[in-house]
Amino acid sequence: MKRNISQGWVKLSILSIVMLVMACSLTSNPSLAPTPNPTFTPTPTVRVPLVVTPSPKLESRCEDLSGTLEIQILVGPAEAVGLEPFAVGEIPFSVLPEGGTYRVQGGGPISYQEVLAEEWGTYTVSLEMDTTIDGQCGGDTGSEALHMTIESTGEQMLEVRADGFSGDYPWSGTSMVDLTFPLEEGSMQSGEGRAFILHLNN
């Protein structure tokens, strides 16, 4: 009976030693230990900023624009006696940037005295005027235009002498005419007995 009990204690002691050795092995070798539940860390989404390359801005043709307006006499009697309109002067103008727009400014005196002799008679012109130009240049790129108000103050005398025809045509005071020109050399507009031709410097 005692031998059986002793053998039982011996087996129990051996089993305890084996379990203790296994526990130590698991502790000293982490790779054999049970793997804890993994914790998932979300990967942050990296947003790449959208780079928009602006289209190059086309420069307005109004920029640094300048030129002259040629004034031609355009009066009924001249046509009646067979005369074509003719130039009596030029008004300089320039275009300047102003608050995101382009302003047109110009002006100057015009003085003209001439007697035109033809076979049919004479056509006399006497002209003394001060002129001013005010307006704007603008429009879509490629289709810009000049919008001008021409103010003229002074005196003008036209005398026509011909066979069977005699007439005097005085004028004094202030006249204003609104004109619009596409930005094309030689563009022409008429009003108030005169014709205006656009000449561009650039």
Description of the molecule:
The chain contains 2 helices and 8 strands. By secondary structure, it is of the alpha+beta class. It folds into 2 domains: 2-32; 66-200. The protein has an 8-stranded antiparallel beta sheet, with no helix packed on it. A hairpin with a 2-residue loop joins strand 7 and strand 8 (194-200). The longest helix has 27 residues, at 2-28. The model has no long low-confidence stretch (mean pLDDT 79).
Brief summary of the model shown:
The protein has 202 residues and is of the alpha+beta class. It is built from 2 helices and 8 strands; from the N terminus they run H-E-H-E-E-E-E-E-E-E.
Features of the shown structure:
202 residues, alpha+beta, 8 strands, 16% helix, 2 domains
**Residues in helices, as a percent range:** 10-25%
Largest sheet: 8 strands, antiparallel
Overall number of domains: 2
Helix/sheet category = alpha+beta
What fraction strand?
over 45%
Radius of gyration: 50 Å
Secondary-structure element order, as H and E? HEHEEEEEEE
The spatial strand order of the largest sheet comes to 6-5-4-3-2-1-8-7
Number of helices: 2
Let me know the average pLDDT.
Answer: 79
